[in-house]
Write a structure and sequence with these properties.
- By secondary structure, the chain is of the alpha/beta class.
- Helix content is 51%, strand content 12%.
- It has helices spanning 13-24, 36-45, 67-71, 86-96, 119-125, 140-143, 158-168, 181-204, 207-228, 239-250, 255-264, 269-275, 281-296, 301-310, 316-324; strands spanning 5-9, 28-32, 61-62, 76-79, 102-105, 110-111, 116-117, 131-135, 149-154, 173-178.
- The strands form 2 sheets. An 8-stranded mixed sheet has the order 3-2-1-4-5-8-9-10, with helices on both faces. The protein has a two-stranded antiparallel sheet with strand order 6-7.
- The longest helix is centred in the middle third of the chain and has 24 residues, at 181-204.
């Protein structure tokens, strides 16, 4: 019996790690990089020298030269791309998609046009029963070393969620299921904003008390936004909420934490972007979250301050002062 083919769209750090992990499970996997320059390099060297150097790609991993080749005959399409590319890539996939193919989204971000999580667009393009999202505390550099990790797959179709759980779970990687698509994806997106704030706390040397405050109050912001957009409050206490937030706020490999630290040291956003190889999704997400929060009347003071710092209207020190001088109130309200 032929194995079901998993196609990964996006050969960044996480997409490449995912391909190597799935290959280690002896499953059929393809890895397609949409950006021509990066794809040509991977095809030439059979190694992702830009995002995951030192880890050659076995010949058992297919490297299609076009998206048509990548999608043909695939049972599962894993979308693992920066959110900036989400619209054009999903448009292209929808043109080539067959109704039996399952769409699994790993991209973490918000939809600028629809003012929601990214799954709303997927539901508009594809059969919702064939759509799932995956999010959780999964630092690629730890997974590539074989260290244990967990994540959550969410779908309105419980059988699909359970099937993906079975496909990806192993002694190293434990996958849980959820029916809360909105909550799982928003946890993964919004935590990047709070990780930026955590990085600023680190960069300013403000200590663990301040970092604990940012993480816990940041989780409240994430939860408030999630509830307004239709998520279950409890989801944010799980792996895709608090779990991912802790990892992204503390890991030295976190792009968002690193960006926050560099902002705190006095570098401008434009200076940092010049030498960052990978995308820090928290920048784009913070700006979109602030816009949605104002439209929906959701109070998100940390997010507001982060956007002001990113846009240069506040220094990191001024941002901390602004948060600490807010009007006093109960912790839970």
């Amino acid at each position: 019996m032929e194995q079901e083919i998993i196609t990964i769209i996006g050969a960044g750090n996480w997409g490449t790690t995912l391909a190597l992990y799935i290959d280690s499970l002896k499953r059929s996997v393809r890895l397609f990089e949409p950006v021509d320059r990066n794809r040509n390099s991977i095809l030439k060297h059979r190694e992702n020298k830009t995002y995951l150097p030192g880890h050659p790609l076995p010949w058992s991993i297919e490297l299609p030269e076009s998206i048509n080749q990548a999608l043909q005959g695939a049972e599962y399409i894993f979308i693992v791309i920066p959110s900036d590319f989400f619209y054009p890539l999903t448009d292209k996939i929808s043109e080539l998609w067959n109704p039996h193919q399952k769409i699994v989204n790993f991209t973490k971000g918000l939809d600028e046009k629809l003012k929601t999580g990214l799954s709303t667009r997927l539901f508009n393009l594809f059969d919702p029963d064939n759509v799932a999202v995956i999010s959780g505390p999964t630092i690629a550099r730890e997974i590539i070393k074989g260290l244990p990790a967990t994540t959550v797959v969410a779908s309105v179709n419980q059988k699909l969620a359970e099937k993906i759980q079975q496909l990806l779970s192993s002694e190293q990687f434990r996958v849980y299921t959820s029916a809360d698509v909105v909550g799982v994806e928003l946890g993964g997106a919004l935590k990047n904003i709070i990780a930026l704030a955590g990085g600023i706390v680190e960069g300013l040397g403000l200590g663990n008390n301040a970092k604990a405050a940012v993480i816990t109050r940041g989780l409240m912001e994430m939860t408030r936004m999630g509830e307004v957009l239709g998520a279950n409050r409890e989801t944010f206490s799980g792996l895709s909420g608090m779990g991912d937030l802790i990892t992204t706020s503390f890991s030295k490999f976190s792009r968002n934490r690193t960006l926050g630290e560099r902002l705190a040291r006095g570098e401008s956003l434009e200076e940092i972007k010049l030498d960052m190889v990978e995308v820090a999704e928290g920048v784009r997400t913070a700006i979109l979250a602030k816009s949605i929060a104002r439209e929906k009347n959701v109070e998100m003071p940390i997010t507001e301050v982060i956007v002001d710092i990113l846009q240069g209207t506040l220094t990191p020190e001024q941002g901390v002062k602004k948060l600490m001088e807010r009007s006093l109130k109960p912790e839970i309200w």
